[in-house]
């Protein structure tokens, strides 16, 4: 027992996990709004705490070349391939404290339970905390899991955060070598499967009165960055008909995107989560406006059609307003199916714990979208209050945390390696 974990004596797995969620939730850029983004002091403080919990749980733990926290619990003999568990430990801005950490901390507590019982399995268990799933700081997501999957794109090292700091410089300042990220990559032969427990982030399990659900697939997503260039000018002297107002143009683009998604009957969802206008003075017509677009749909084909349609429509808005539009895809992830053989074992664990098996897709993205390149993936969802997420009101009842942990522990102890599915 070390200083970080002293006093963590709890009656149930759920109690221990909730205590740690609350501890980790204190590590934030500001006390008022939870934010813990890639390669910051908060990232380092969170990593140190999680590594201590991992070691206390009997895992050999280290920080990898991109800042993931990695723990390994050997099987019956050293060097066996592993069942990898985990989730991310970065957050969005003004976040809830469960999105990511619940899966990571639950996995650590499950291994701690095995360790307490001196239980060793015919395979190793690894727990990975991914350093940047949300992509808040550098607008490209799944950086930690892509590094583990060996698909990290070095081009993103040049991307800059809102303060103009490049990822390359931020990695160096954090004490990591940007030319050494490849060292985080794992071989497919080292992994038997990847399983992630995560809050549902939606209202379905609550509507079904269920504590847990079995994920069928992770919806693909496309993120775009749009930039409109018009002409800045004096707010008092330029007649309305002579203006090339970039912010007004962005507003029309945004309502066009919303209307296209609202009238779509195929489950398309579109979000403009960020907008920035220049020069940003009350009495100056904005000459520049940039905004992000996040598009998702149940199938890749539908999403790709929607991307093309939306780009066409906002190009027409720009033309009509004599604005110059630049649109770039900053992130694209295909829909990832959960492997049937692995999903079935999640379902068996749910049923064995006495709960109705309910399957549902994930509209949210997860690290399994990157891990699929080196292992089959499956996910277990845990009910969250009102389906609220990416919001400080995000909450999970301790009883549901405990149920999620018991299902995951049962899955681990009954896990049977399967034949890896054909690559998607
Ligand atoms: O955007 C997502 O779906 C995830 O929360 N990163
Ligand atoms: Mn999230
Ligand atoms: Mn998440």
Give the key terms.
binds manganese (II) ion; 424 residues; disordered N terminus; 11 helices; nine-stranded mixed sheet; five-stranded antiparallel sheet; 21% strand; Alpha-Beta Plaits; single chain; binds (2S)-amino(hydroxy)ethanoic acid; Aminopeptidase; alpha+beta; 2 domains
Write a concise synopsis of the structure shown.
The chain has 424 residues and is α+β, with helices and mostly antiparallel strands. 32% of the residues lie in helices and 21% in strands. The protein has helices at 13-24, 41-56, 101-116, 143-149, 167-174, 204-207, 246-262, 300-320, 340-352, 368-371, 398-414, and strands at residues 60-63, 69-73, 82-88, 124-130, 191-199, 212-218, 221-229, 233-234, 269-271, 275-278, 284-285, 288-296, 324-333, 336-337, 359-362, 377-382.
